Amino acid sequence: MVQNGRKVIFLTFMERSFCKHEHIFYTPKKKAEGKVLLVFVLTLVFMLVEIIAGYIFGSVALLADGVHMGTHAVAFGITLGAYMLARKWSRDVSFSFGTWKVEVLGAYTSAVILGVMAFLVLGEAVLKLIKREGVKYEDALLVAFAGLLINLVSAFALSHDDEHKHDFNLSAAYLHVIADVLTSLLAITALLGGEYLGMWYLDPLSGLVGFSVILSWSYSLLKDTAQILLDREMASPLVKELIERIEKDNTSKVQDIHLLRVHHDKYACILSVMTTEDRSVDYYIKRLEGIDNLVHTTIEIKYCPHVELTH
């Protein structure tokens, strides 16, 4: 087409092939689903045990640990649902760039819930410091040790898997469990200090520490997932590499570039390139060969033989 006296060519290629054009970027993860389901059930059941025991025995540390487990149970549930929905909708053409962001949306939602629950723990801890209510240490310790055991079993179930290197959700789930292990240890330490050293204040203080840990995790997850959902990818080193490859010949200039993450470390890219030479499609395809995490690219080429390019 001729536009404003310039020859404009629109070129599209997918996975370095003209004949293959699919938008299925999602890979089913049934093995990971099974593991997350197991951990979800274990965490959900013992979350209820710890929260109820925390209220009955008057332990904020136990309550904080239970709420912390509860937030991760919610996260595991959302993760499990995201796996299932992403798999179910993976061939739905209404999703322009696949269904991986269903998982990311699930993680963002769980982070919001996590932040709300952190403030519930804070309220309980402050109330306990003011009222200084007694704690049934022996009973609370039994529940806390049982919670630690459940967390260790869950951590073991999730740890033996190479998928951690490629699955953001599975890796995050494993980190959740490790955080639960640490929180359980914190609760046990506070209860032991109150039982044997008379340091009653350790229990509510551990609740304050738990609040800080939970809120920090919530903020970190919100920040990471929001960046993906809002397509804030232009700071990626891939952007610089794409521009350098295209402009290396000194006759081409990238006028516009958009990068979108479609799956973990896989990206789609939209490029607008101005060139003073009449380049073929194969020319730019070869320029971008070898970039494994670039799975879908659309290129607009503007042939402007009389324009002086500046880099």
UniProtKB/TrEMBL annotation:
It is found in: Membrane. Keywords: Membrane, Transmembrane, Transmembrane helix. This is Cation diffusion facilitator family transporter. It is a multi-pass membrane protein. It comes from Hydrogenobacter hydrogenophilus. Residues 36-230 form the Cation efflux protein transmembrane domain. GO terms for cellular component: plasma membrane. Coiled coil: none annotated. It comes from the Bacteria. The keyword Membrane applies.
